[in-house]
Amino acid sequence: MSVWNYVVTAHKPTNVTHSCVGNFTAPNQLNLIIAKCTRIEIHLLTPHGLQPMLDVPIYGRIATLELFRPHNEAQDFLFIATQRYKFCVLQWDAESSDLITRAMGDVSDRIGRPTDNGQIGIIDPDCRLIGLHLYDGLFKVIPFDNKGQLKEAFNIRLEELQVLDIKFLYGCSKPTIGVLYQDNKDARHVKTYEVSLKDKDFVEGPWSQSNLDNGAGLLIPVPLPLGGVIIIGEETIVYCSATAFKAIPIRPSIIRAYGRVDADGSRYLLSDHTGLLHLLVIIHEKERVTGLKIENLGETSVASTISYLDNAVVYVGSSYGDSQLIKLNLQPDAKGSYVEVLDRYVNLGPITDFCIVDLERQGQGQVVTCSGAYKDGSLRVVRNGIGINEQAAVELEGIKGLWSLKSSTDDPHDTFLVVSFITETRFLAMNMEDELEETEIEGFDAQTQTLYCQNAINDQLVQVTSNAVRLVSSTSRELLDQWNAPAGFSVNVATANASQVLLATGGGNLVYIEIRESKLVEVKHIQLEYEISCLDINPIGENSTHSSLAAVGMWTDISVRIFSLPGLELFKKENLGGEIIPRSVLLCAFEGVPYLLCALGDGHLFSFQLNISNGALGDRKKVSLGTQPISLRTFSSKDTTHVFAASDRPTVIYSSNKKLLYSNVNLKEVSHMCPFNTAAFPDSLAIAKEGELSIGTIDDIQKLHIRTIPLGEHARRICHQEKTRTFAICTLRAASTEDMETHFVRLLDDQSFDIISTYALDAYEYGCCVLSCSFAEDSNAYYCVGTAYVLPEENEPSKGRILIFAVEDGKLQLLAEKETKGAVYRLNSFNGKLLAAINQKIQLYKWVAREDGSHELQSECGHHGHILALYVQTRGDFIVVGDLMKSISLLVYKHEEGAIEELARDYNANWMTAVEILDDDVYLGAENNFNLFTVRKNSDAATDEERGRLEVVGEFHLGEFINCFRHGSLVMRLPDSDTGAIIPTVIFGTVNGVIGIVASLPHDQYLFLEKLQVNLVKVIKGVGGLSHEQWRSFNNEKKTVDARNFLDGDLIESFLDLSRVKMEEVSKTMGVPVEELCKRVEELTRLH
Amino acid sequence: MATRPQIAAEKKKKIEITNKTRHPYQTNNATKLSHKVREIEIEREREMGSLLGDWPSFDPHNFSQLRPADPTAQPSKLTPVTYHPTHNRTIPPPNQVITTESKNILLRQFYQKSEEQLRPKTKRAASESLMPEHSCKQPRGLNSDA
Description:
The complex is a heterodimer of chains A (1088) and B (146).
Chain A: E1 5-11, E2 18-22, E3 31-35, E4 39-46, E5 49-57, E6 62-68, E7 77-82, E8 86-93, E9 98-106, E10 120-123, E11 129-133, E12 138-143, E13 154-157, E14 162-168, E15 176-182, E16 188-196, E17 201-209, E18 218-221, E19 229-232, E20 236-240, E21 245-249, E22 255-260, E23 267-272, E24 276-285, E25 288-299, E26 303-310, E27 313-318, E28 323-328, E29 339-345, E30 353-357, E31 366-371, E32 378-384, E33 388-395, E34 401-405, E35 416-420, E36 425-430, E37 436-439, E38 450-456, E39 460-465, E40 468-473, E41 479-484, E42 491-496, E43 500-505, E44 509-516, E45 519-527, E46 532-536, E47 549-554, E48 559-564, E49 570-575, E50 582-590, E51 593-600, E52 604-610, E53 617-624, E54 631-637, E55 640-646, E56 651-656, E57 659-664, E58 670-676, E59 684-689, E60 692-698, E61 704-710, E62 714-721, E63 726-734, E64 741-749, E65 755-760, E66 765-775, E67 778-789, E68 800-808, E69 811-820, E70 824-830, E71 833-838, E72 841-849, E73 855-863, E74 869-875, E75 878-883, E76 888-894, E77 899-905, E78 912-917, E79 922-927, E80 931-936, ...
Parallel strand pairs in A: 1-87
Antiparallel strand pairs in A: 1-84, 2-3, 3-4, 4-5, 6-7, 7-8, 8-9, 10-11, 11-12, 12-13, 14-15, 15-16, 16-17, 18-19, 19-20, 20-21, 22-23, 23-24, 24-25, 26-27, 27-28, 28-29, 30-31, 31-32, 32-61, 33-60, 34-35, 35-36, 36-37, 38-39, 39-40, 40-41, 42-43, 43-44, 44-45, 46-47, 47-48, 48-49, 50-51, 51-52, ...
Chain B: H1 4-22, H2 33-52, E1 81-82, E2 97-98, H3 105-127, H4 140-145
């Protein structure tokens, strides 16, 4: 790999951090708005459920999301503040469906200590001001003027330094906040302040309440007529106002999410850390609060946000599990739960670890993540592309074509499968035992190759061979009519639909035949100047049995032409350029948009938008799908038409949001495909591969497939062992007794994902890492597990273990254990030995045979000098260490001396979260301010001092907390069509559930894309006026510097979503044709 | 910490109250107990019904045709269109680019105090009218403060 890197998201964040409900897109429309860290999603509430409207990337990590209604406005505005101290106010313009910026700004202060408990952003219910608590001891006010415009912000000194929550109170004549804080004796209190906008200061508020629950952490302001606040503690819930104080005890729990149900504030939904949903009711007589009541409703995912939507339906957003849409029922179900889950939405976050495996041995990597936390912990199998699940297969050599036929027009199922070979045609049919057996269709010619086959109108079948077109009754299977090729000519290519046949005989002759009742009628015959290479008349107009257009691909001038039917008048000729002839054309419609697809002999594919009335072609795009000729065929899945491109790299072409997408299929080489829908194999495809005919079903059509394996406990580490076909995972489960966790090492079968063996760790013992390896002179595969004893009285673990397991008869067998003087944060296989990172130390162990044949770990050498060595990667004799707070250092193992020495280090104070070795000299790091950086070894430098320094060569703000890097790829990697080289990639997983790719590019490609990025920034604006340059700049407490040597792939790939006009604008400034830009960006999208 | 008993006392009181409302039938008659338990259950169900009923409805049509997803199915993925604005209205109106007032809080308070002390004098000055403005320019308040 190299220093020129391209970073792109393969799976967007799914961790839901905020949500709110309001009339955002229209006064009469109710919207749910969800924040997923760096993106917001706008949904519309409809009778059918949530209808997704828009996914909006935000150039920042969202700290606050609030809807509010300024005076005299008919719909709500959206206030967003980001963690890097930017904010914006967005309004929906329904006319153009755009988000427009009403206001934005920078609310950072040059001095000030960022708050420990997160940023708080709140809006006065009477819309007089926005309040922000971003730095300890400061409360920032952005006032509204009487026209709803924002004015210059100012700070007010806030005496309370340890603020836990701040909320505006309802119904106060002056804007009033309630502040929940902790004093320096760790006691918690609530104080109220009026904000005096005139004096720019606080005035003592109407009430205060001292000495609350020690776990009080959340304020809920209560609207009028009741007013006041609810204070949520860990053991009590308190209602507090100037006139009333009511409290109820609760079962000890931590409640971090609430949702108001009624506009008058009498009921609230609360979710605790175990995912129990409670209903909190304020009992009141008119305006006098008389008590509180809390009821358990049932269980959901552990919520980070709750939004009551409408008609008893509630959105539960989660950071630790799948988010849910639930319904509150009036009657409990059999388990006593009032909660009914209507829908669940995938969340991969937090990804604590993952591994890349090729479970189906198809040459394509799948990512298996440790996802979720607590009871919502799970493994997720993430696979790119579309899977064909093979149901049946037969060996058949030399298939030249495949078609399915029904026995009558209204039969819902296919009966026959026509398989064509070079000298014959065979007919297969499902028999009574649901087996495929050879049969006959009497009127068809079985002695020659079939060029095309089709069900025709009036229960007829049509077969085109090299010398004739035969029309056969599908009921009697007798020949009804036949059209013969003229003497001396043979049919080269042919196509048909239910009522038309189009064929080409040699010498550029094009013949159009119509299918009537028991009759074939030659309607038109023209001669073209060159030979015809491919044809299509797939109906895409309103009439599904008849086409008014024909697409024809030509030899010699390498063109594709559109003719009218029945007249065969030339509508349009499009020269494709180059020397490769078109091998397959297809007329098809995606999401109601007609397209012409044209595939070349070298695996390239052109797509055009087609005007049905005049055959005009527009929006020409070229992509590379493989290296071999492609054959195109439509098929249906879930009532939607897609296209299967059979080649050495089979691809499904589909459309999402009016954009063509190309998704890999998990098969290596497919020569032909046809849909084959029978009672025994419903909605299946027949697929001709090398030497084999198989029948399989197809996955849902989408780019990434995620399979969930719920564990009911929190998986923290995962590792795959090829030899035993198992996974080992380190998990933890909250025990039923209080405050105790039990940690396990579990063994899973890699096909069924069943837990087949478990090793329970000691009390207080945590599983920190797991590795599959073998040793020098012992080629058996072992699982090595590093642990730490985390004792409540110790600041840092002083004891741990290394456990060596073998898998014997599907069971984990502990073969050896070695006690360590600290936590074993990381284990690596290193020169046939075991390298362990233990607290401050890197330690190398040998695997030594004892006399009795057993083995033990023997310490060989080590290296001190880290704060905590948390992350270790090795390559050859080199060891790269990511330290808790001292960035990256490079060590080397010296064989002769049996010693590990430091070669170089990065002297920046980066707090690391993951490291990876890109190549011999360049190392990649992720740190806890959400940045990525690369460092380079200076082995050629002149002085020792320079050689001892790792030079920072790349910096980038990703905005994601990376937990893990792994070399590998989500897609089947074939050499790039142009360069013949494979772009190396590293996959990363983050807390928000992002799976991303870092790809190292050749320098010239990097420069080209850098230029494209610069131009795109001018065209694609930051939502809310936020700056892309500032967003991607490397930023921590010490410095902010522009991004370098990293490209923002998410921005670059959004080029493909631009309108043609905007693409041309970019193309003009770049001086590169749109088609070329599209092709190069499309190729990048195929990296993930 | 010294204050926790206060909360605890409140807690206890609350429990008593709730117990009273939940168990209005204080009885020692064992034969009646099961009957009472049943009554209490009914009471609880009725109570829950009253707590759970009457969910707010903004548009009765919303979710009316939504059928629950198969609980054994894999969770779904909602994929809205990604928004890439190319229009010029991502830039706010010029007066709506907000910054924080640069004046230090301490200085601001100084000025405010001085203005407050000036105010009665300027009031009088106003009644006397036509005193030239510049006479107030000197931070007289500051001087008088000292």
